[in-house]
Fold this protein.
Amino acid sequence: MPAETSQTLDRGLHVLRVLAGTPGGMTVTELSSALGVNRTVVYRLVATLEQHALLRRDAAGRLHVGLGVLHLASAVQPVLRDQAMPVLRTLAEDVGCTAHLTVADGDEALALAVVEPSWTDFHVAYRVGSRHPLGQGAAGKAILLGREQRPASSYAVTSGELQVGAQGLAAPVLAVEGLEASVGIVTLGDLPEDDLAPKVLSAAAAVAHRLS
């Protein structure tokens, strides 16, 4: 027997999902149409979400996701980092490259967790909190592959796009609801794609499993 759920809460979450996917915002009428409910219901949902800063209005009265969502998201980041670190540590030690978990933050890729190998003579220093456009670097391009719903064996390889001489390989973290992320490695040395790609794909799958 299905568990009982709250229709109001479900609608409120649906409001946030719809607005998150609409960068230009929506009017109450547009939101009412998207949800398939009357405007009176939408006004009540909007008023409640505004009180919790989860929704805001711009100068033209259009509705957008509010800054309160950032506070919720920031609480999730340590969980993602903690779950990914053991996998990244194993990957970095195995392949001798700096390993990282990167998440999408708007149009940018944000390095959320980084592990450097302990036994190599040199490796790439990759700072937690580093940002770059999603369209540059293996990590961001892998996230875009995940958005495009490419085959699970898909990965991205880049050379010198973010740092001269650095080679990157990353795979998207798939099938985790609400998460756009990738697991990748970066090195200044040779990057034998055929040998390393399966290990990165396996690590991305392992992170997805730990978060599921």
